[in-house]
């Protein structure tokens, strides 16, 4: 304690050089090498914080320039015309499309990912669970542009049959009506996104399911529970918060995915009820596809929409991390 | 006669009837056959429909048969099991399809010519050309990003593990976590806003900066995990010999965990090598060979794939090139992954005992 409190003192202490106290101070004191190294490493940490702050500041600055000249309402206008005078743009369509595609992706990915995590931890033969986990990691390693290419050239043509079915059986709801256009729509985007976010949800859930106390499961088994009942009564309740935060991490990925959406979706600036008809757009997709034709003002407008995306993902990821942090304290107390 | 019947009955009431172990396989085979049969009869062409019918029949059939023979609780258990298996198959199918298609269509034009020529004199809709310029661009951008991102990431992790106490360390930990989730396009927009302010044209190094931002948090996380695995006894032994802390870190802690750190950096490199969005905004793409990352637009592999796809106008030649470039990119990323895992296994920190 004594040493650690005096480490900040300069090494030579001329005031009391002869006392034992002084000697100890000198020995425990920071050497130049230590100070440089601490400075470097602390500096890197601070640099990371500075970068985060700079992202927020500069995006806000450029966004403010654009929003100030926006002739429409930034939040409710259904248009993106930045190259004409007066410029009119709004994020309503993008916000809607981003949320819809992510919700579809979550609805498909979360149950499947939880099932796969359970498969790896509880169902698979022991020899299989390692390779399966590896295959899921491979899914995560494939670059998103390759998913996009695959989605546009392989998945899209394969969706016709499914779309026909949905239209035949559920077309009356309006949500699943289909006018026989190419299936470059929100539903296909959602399905592709669900494949892409599967690995992260699976990996985090798997870690949580591994931490379930053996005692809980054995107690349930001893009471005569079937394997499913063990999972429902001991594994899922224990892992619930972990699965929630895993899903939010996946959601953050889905919200910000750019290339896969840009290649698959055929965008338009309107909101429609049907998930099967092409149209709509997402924040990231809009930035990628509008960028090349945008002038300087148009780029500022795109930066403004990117700022909204940044804030949304910040909130989602922050919330997920807070849940995980609370969880780890809890399980640490239990260990 | 009667006693035999009684013992039989008692045995069955204790154990309950159960299906033979081969039942799930039989139901699976039956439902796949039935699914194909129904689809063929109804004239469905999409394999997704076939698979959906088969999957549905499998889960329903399992429940029906098990509920009849074994009772409801067992039936539910079996349904859960079959759902888990179906989910696993559902996840593997896209991966297999993706790799299969990429390899099958990528090998068509992938040869030495393709790897050593640029698109300089070839229109996007015509056959010919190659990805040399994109490989050069990718290597330079990712290399520069690694030179910037990896040291900062490792140093931050050292700070968090070896020095980090108090509020600053907590804030850094939290924001590193949040930073992991920043969409790549937002990192691109950040650098773009700087470029707009300084009135700069697109160039390779700008892309490197965005990639470095994406790389740092990944490196920090993995390095942190590795440094935490180094046993405290090693540090204490070194400090007890009077070695300064910074030399302890450089000579004892880092060498012990260097394998894991290398793995983490390589995985991060694999991740940023596939990023398209920031490169699209900042480097812009260029059909000609540009060896200078500090001036003028460059190409990069992921961007090349996107631009071949987007500018193809439905031409098969452009799609073929996009698939071949995808194959190259996947091969690069997978090799990095495998090597990284190999290093991790080979140089796993010896935690003693």
UniProtKB/TrEMBL annotation, chain A:
CDD domains in alphabetical order: TM_PBP2
Protein family: Belongs to the binding-protein-dependent transport system permease family. CysTW subfamily.
Residue span of region Disordered: 1-29
Places the protein is found: Cell membrane
Protein name: Phosphate transport system permease protein
Keyword annotations: Cell membrane, Membrane, Phosphate transport, Transmembrane, Transmembrane helix, Transport
PROSITE patterns: ABC_TM1
Membrane topology qualifier: Multi-pass membrane protein
Function: Part of the binding-protein-dependent transport system for phosphate; probably responsible for the translocation of the substrate across the membrane.
Pfam families: BPD_transp_1 (PF00528)
PANTHER family: PHOSPHATE TRANSPORT SYSTEM PERMEASE PROTEIN PST, PHOSPHATE TRANSPORT SYSTEM PERMEASE PROTEIN PSTC
ABC transmembrane type-1 domain span: 95-320
Native organism taxonomy: Bacteria, Bacillati, Actinomycetota, Actinomycetes, Kitasatosporales
Automatic annotation (TrEMBL), chain B:
PROSITE patterns to which the protein is assigned, alphabetical: ABC_TM1
Keywords assigned by UniProt, alphabetized: Cell membrane, Membrane, Phosphate transport, Transmembrane, Transmembrane helix, Transport
Transmembrane stretches, start-end: 21-42, 48-67, 79-103, 142-161, 173-197, 203-220, 252-273, 322-344
Record domain ABC transmembrane type-1: where: 135-340
CDD domains: TM_PBP2 (cd06261)
Compartments where found: Cell membrane
Membrane topology reported for the UniProt record: Multi-pass membrane protein
Main location: membrane
Pfam family, one: BPD_transp_1
Source superkingdom: Bacteria
General function of this protein: Part of the binding-protein-dependent transport system for phosphate; probably responsible for the translocation of the substrate across the membrane.
NCBIfam families for the chain: 3a0107s02c
Protein family according to the UniProt entry: Belongs to the binding-protein-dependent transport system permease family. CysTW subfamily.
Protein name as catalogued: Phosphate transport system permease protein PstA
Organism: Streptomyces pyxinicus
Lineage: Bacteria, Bacillati, Actinomycetota, Actinomycetes, Kitasatosporales
